[in-house]
């Protein structure tokens, strides 16, 4: 998570969001609702849909877009060893998507990694990670946790574990749910980025709460609604949740205002490259044929 000051005057009046409405019906995760047979039928239906954001070239685009928001660089593969406390109340933020010691996903990552690789350099910190979960505390983590993270990130197994946790907690559920809602590749990315940013929570400012509030204002494509109208409503709710979290003017909303909203306004529903966007005032570009070989952008 990166804090900053949003640029309100750059947003057309028609695109400026209303304050998020509090929903009266508790949000649900449709992927976990219903009977076991109903869930299997839903997953089977989703599996038959086009790959969308899960296609390798599109997933690479998604990774680069997220990296500009989380790390201000297109080179997401260079961020496995990143770790710092951003002062946002989430404790340590680390790795390719900003796993946080205070938001449970870092704990899930280290637990899964340790189950596969006992005795790794982060395993001794599991008791402390469990204690600080839900807080910004470093108790039991300092002074050695950050160095242990950097050292572990040099190992292919831990890098693979970060990829797997990203997909399991965020990417796969977001893409599946977006497909269920009838959304194309851009909509799938918007869901994924919101899942990363707000967390997969059912509360009003969690992903599922934001989705429900959006559905109360506009029908999804699967419900027969206009996809662009629904996505604008979703971005409104997501943006309002961002601004409310730390107060007006204190959280930068570039990832919506000068990236996702621009793609949507341009009608790029397939999230097709070339793409140009601005993040925190800096311009980024993905060429028409993004490389998916693992080389950093711009490398020979």
From TrEMBL:
One of its GO terms (molecular function) is chitosanase activity. Gene3D superfamilies: Chitosanase, subunit A, domain 1 (1.20.141.10), Chitosanase, subunit A, domain 2 (3.30.386.10). It catalyses: Endohydrolysis of beta-(1->4)-linkages between D-glucosamine residues in a partly acetylated chitosan. One of its GO terms (cellular component) is extracellular region. Keywords: Glycosidase, Hydrolase, Secreted. It is an enzyme of class 3 (hydrolase). Its main location: secreted. It comes from the Bacteria. This is Chitosanase. Residues 22-36 have a biased composition (Polar residues). The active site is at residues 70, 88. Belongs to the glycosyl hydrolase 46 family. It comes from Streptomyces marianii. Aids in the defense against invading fungal pathogens by degrading their cell wall chitosan.
